[in-house]
Amino acid sequence: MQAHAATKPVLLYFEEEQPSAERIAQAAGLALFPIERHRFPDGELKLRLPPALGPQVVLLRTLNDPNEKLVELLLAAQTARTLGAQHLTLVAPYLAYMRQDIAFQAGEAISQRVIGCFLSTLFDALITVDPHLHRVANLQEAVPVTQAIVLSGAPLLSDLIATRRQRPLLLGPDAESAQWVAVAAARHGFDHGVCQKMRHGDHAVQLELPDMAIAGRQVVLLDDVASTGQTVAQAARLLLAAGAASVDVAVTHALFAGDALQVLREAGVGEVWSTDCIAHDSNAISMASAIAAALVALLDTGINGKSGPGAQSLLS
Ligand code: R5P
Q1: How many other C-beta atoms can be found within 10 angstroms of the C-beta atom of residue 308?
Q2: Is the pLDDT at 160 greater than 60, yes or no?
Q3: Which domains does the chain have, with CATH numbers?
């Protein structure tokens, strides 16, 4: 592809995220260029960016399966700077490594802090969706970039649920999910609550339902992320045992590792809805418009606007 020093901001993307990149670039009016990637026989990567870049550059990389992508970000961001980028924004609809936010046992890496600092050395700005911020006050505490924007999938998931279920009962599977459940429930006046969760291992969780009438209710479990699926599966088992008429699942980030979807089906879950922050068959909501609007606002402040829309905004 022919590349020129662009006057309008450029969105760089990797091939497998082309559909999202096209939606975002079109909605935000950005020039769009792919990053070419070559894998050498020994596993090392070579990236190729457009040979000249304008001052404002946006990189789209959602960070499921994050480890190799973090090396890509290092290579791409530092190269973009040498090619002309002065203000570099990372759009990571799913932001990895946010759940390990303390050392649960002595000696454990606090991944959120380490990865957050790493990203802040590469990028001026970050836009993400429903990051798992539990014990920190805001995104910039976890990722200390100059500009940080947090979007949420909860309102759009709520709108979808309102079209699919009559008087649903919205439940979060654990205390952390209360933030998203509260937003989604308020939007349509849904009854809501949260469960108590104890995690004993990657695939072992123990849940307790809230003290609410469950029998006959159409329950939708809402969470930021489903990984092994054990959290929502265990909630579904308890709900169906308590007489729920149906249990569906709505998540922002459809990680669904391994046989997670099968685990959900066997637990009795009906529908599974997710946003397109991570491409998955369950995607029912696009975040492209919200991301584009956030980008326009952020880039509007320009290179001199490093203190621009600023700290943290909840845009949707
Ligand atoms: C943790 O608090 C998150 O919000 C999710 O509930 C959790 O990561 C889901 O993990 P899994 O699907 O493996 O149970």
Answers
A1: 17
A2: yes
A3: 2-152+287-314 (3.40.50.2020), 154-285 (3.40.50.2020)
Residue 156 CA from chain centroid, whole number: 14
What ligand 1 atom has the least distance to the C-alpha of 223? 4
Ligand 1 atom closest to residue 203's alpha carbon, by position in its atom list? 13
Average pLDDT, stretch 30-41? 98
Question: Among 242, 234, 243, 228, which Cα is nearest to 269's?
Answer: 234
With the most atoms of ligand 1 within 8 angstroms of its CB, the residue from 231, 232, 251, 255 to mutate is 231
Pocket, ligand 1, Cβ cutoff 6 A: 99, 132, 173-174, 176-177, 205, 223-231
From the CA of 205, how far away is ligand 1's center (Å)?
9
Question: What is the model's pLDDT at position 311?
Answer: 38
Residue in 223, 234, 235, 227 with CA at minimum distance from that of residue 260 = 227
What is d(CA 19, CA 26) in angstroms, rounded to the nearest whole number?
Answer: 11
